[in-house]
């Protein structure tokens, strides 16, 4: 009973999805390979579009990645195609689907990833070293501006999609092989590039700076002319960069403005 992962790797739009799906598929296949219940009742295969375009044509496949189960007898039924859009492609979900189709239960084993532990250890060491060097003067801990800047950095990182990038691992940008044009903004609302996150981060930072300047102009008690200039600069930052942000939103969410 072969279970096949069909990948259309040469399609840039789904390149990072195929890569993530392939990683989950490899985790599942290796879990079965090194399982104590391993037998010849189930085989895992993979088809790359670059090397097996005819397979895509024979199966009338026009999207990727796709997971299919081929029973030992008869043709595949509708349930033999994994519902990727509804369930996702996590190895655990694939294992459950395989158990439903073949009655073969696979216990998913993921290799340990120590990158998070190492990063946390480095961060703790850095903070500890800084506190040790400044042990005689810890007033900076009570600096409101410093904590505010740190909080804003976290907010900018999260609202720009950095966590999504960490989970999905998208490419930095996309270069069209036909005309060489580089795209930094993904055309779909379901995906993004790393460069797009950086752009959104800078736009949010500029808008925030404009709001800070507007607040400074309204609450300060300095020269009226200086406050007017600060107000105009802040207003210009908010209007210009927020308009730019809306234009990106409109290019990704087709149909905006909603009516």
Automatic annotation (TrEMBL):
Instruction: State the annotated membrane topology for this chain.
Output: Multi-pass membrane protein
GO terms, biological process = protein N-linked glycosylation via asparagine
How is this protein annotated for GO cellular component? oligosaccharyltransferase complex
Q: What is its main location?
A: endoplasmic reticulum
Keywords linked to the UniProt accession: Membrane, Transmembrane, Transmembrane helix
Where does the record say this protein resides?
Endoplasmic reticulum membrane
Q: Report the SUPFAM superfamilies cross-referenced here.
A: Thioredoxin-like
Q: What Pfam families does this protein's entry cite?
A: OST3_OST6
User: What family classification does the UniProt entry report for this protein?
Assistant: Belongs to the OST3/OST6 family.
- PANTHER family assigned to the protein according to its UniProt record, in alphabetical order: DOLICHYL-DIPHOSPHOOLIGOSACCHARIDE--PROTEIN GLYCOSYLTRANSFERASE-RELATED, TUMOR SUPPRESSOR CANDIDATE 3
Q: What is this protein called?
A: Uncharacterized protein
Q: Which organism was this protein described from?
A: Melopsittacus undulatus (Budgerigar)
